[in-house]
């Protein structure tokens, strides 16, 4: 099992089979440390300003409010357990595993390999959920029910009911279920996650490892975590212990209102280490409202590859402060291309919203209904301007925005740019073949990078192809060298290089002072 995985637990035929996955140490901790963990939290907490926590610090009133609406979701799955590519959180091939490997691998955290599992004609997955409508409307994670042939919900009182899938959205990892009961069901209310602050007390309620509904307490460790799983990443990080089976369960505040949906954990050993992630309620509530109406959710599409505006980039393009989304590439035929968006533009506003970074733009565009005409605030050539664009439909194979940096090829010899620490060479037929470049590709290939100079610190790599300097296209190493020298003589602190790297284009600002 990868260290960071979705909180779903697979079972083979019965609970005994699942016990092979759960180490005895983890089960023992879950059984013996619950009360001690809660007392430690209570001993260090402060009485909330507005909440229903009892004067003695007990969370019992909160639990009494929320727990009756928490359910267990059990699904029978199509795939065989452990089969390559079955998408389980244990096979290393699920989308979340890939995103988490990228996110934590960049920080040097090892990703242990998954031991092989025996195949079985029956496979079940276990997760959690919560009731938002007394008529039986239930919210959970999409990955809990993904690939299910049948879904069963167990209420807090032990009642088991078949559930129907009303709608689901993989991009937000949310799903809505519906059950028919003989009575009105208890519900839990949505809270306001925008008011949630780092350090606030939270409770996680769910069914970890299938041992039964469990409550754990902690605080908000951080806000706005991006796990690179999609354009909507804005996770709440918590230290309340959550484990496999908690997925889809509610994260509640001291008023018993849902302020998040427990979704993922980082775990090098398969159990909780105090690093969990939840989808904010304000994000989830909007999606759930759409899913309750049934059908698919359509997302807006602009068609730009974007990257952050660093202080060096801001200096190179004349912005008085870093901010916005720098357009590194515009997709041919996309709404952005038709609207006149250009490579090198900085998008600072979209549809009336301030764009502070690329993630802001990705979310803002994705939330707009396809076909809407929206206004973009753009910084171009030292001037602010506005551009109108017809937002397109984001198909499954399209990205609203991307900041991938591509591959890392190698190249030959050529001119040297002493002030930046670069060795440049022209594009020859041999180099084109080596780098798999098109015949019409123009630019200067980076042959060497001095590790002690500014270009290396800025992220320029051997094999990069510099196609523009300060937004002026260059066709050769000599042109690139001359353009960089001119930028240095202009008195600016940095030069802006447009680089082709693999299948992506990125802007890199290289400061002269460090060169």
From TrEMBL:
It is an enzyme of class 3 (hydrolase). Its EC number is 3.4.21.107. It is found in: Periplasm. It catalyses: Acts on substrates that are at least partially unfolded. The cleavage site P1 residue is normally between a pair of hydrophobic residues, such as Val-|-Val. Keywords: Hydrolase, Periplasm, Protease, Repeat, Serine protease, Signal, Stress response. Pfam families: PDZ, PDZ_2, Trypsin_2. Residues 288-357, 408-503 form the PDZ domain. Signal peptide: none annotated. Belongs to the peptidase S1C family. It comes from Mesorhizobium dulcispinae. The keyword Repeat applies. InterPro entries: PDZ (IPR001478), PDZ_sf (IPR036034), Pept_S1C_Do (IPR011782), Peptidase_S1_PA (IPR009003), Peptidase_S1C (IPR001940). Its main location: periplasm. Residues 388-419 are annotated as: Disordered. This is Probable periplasmic serine endoprotease DegP-like.
